[in-house]
Amino acid sequence: MIILVFFIPQNGESSGSTMQKVAYFTSGDPLHPQNILVTKNKTAISASKLRDDTVLTSQNRSDSKILSKSTVTNPNGITLETIVITVVVKGKPSINYLMSFKINDTVYAIGVYGPESNGKRISNTANSISKSLNLT
Questions:
Q1: Fewest CB within a 10 Å sphere: which of 10, 34, 99, 117?
Q2: Percentage of the chain with pLDDT > 70?
Q3: pTM of the predicted model, to two decimals?
Q4: Who's near 56: CB < 8 A, 6+ residues apart?
Q5: Nearest to 46 by CA among 4, 6, 103, 124
Q6: pLDDT score for 69
Q7: 3-state secondary structure of 112
Q8: What contacts 24+ positions apart, CB below 8 Å, involve 54-57?
Q9: What is the pLDDT of residues 35-77, one digit of tens each?
Q10: Is residue 20 within 8 Å of residue 45, measured between CB atoms?
Q11: ∠ Cα 26 22 81 (to 5°)
Q12: Which run of H or E residues covers position 94?
């Protein structure tokens, strides 16, 4: 069972970031943890530029590895810039599925992440989200 917690930061932003937090979800299952972070862009940046900047940042870190990056169009016609990255957090590898896309002149980013040991469930969650994004 997954219990989702809705969270909006008090000021809605992280300092120094061009992205504004919209929502944060976390599973209530300690055996299969996963998190979902939804942000939107506060500046004029494209979804592909956001993806490329994230790739560049990851390539410059010794604790991360890019597994894949691509541009895909979901069944509803939304074009997604995607990245799959592993990052070592507190000595443990995590898997991160990152998607950026534009809807109505706003660029959004969704990150689905958690321990690499829960990679299959995290991948399934990311795939479900990417396929269900819609303009309505």
A1: 10
A2: 87
A3: 0.82
A4: none
A5: 103
A6: 92
A7: strand
A8: 54/83, 54/85, 54/98, 54/100, 55/83
A9: 999 999 877 788 888 888 888 888 888 888 999 999 999 999 9
A10: no
A11: 90
A12: strand 92-103
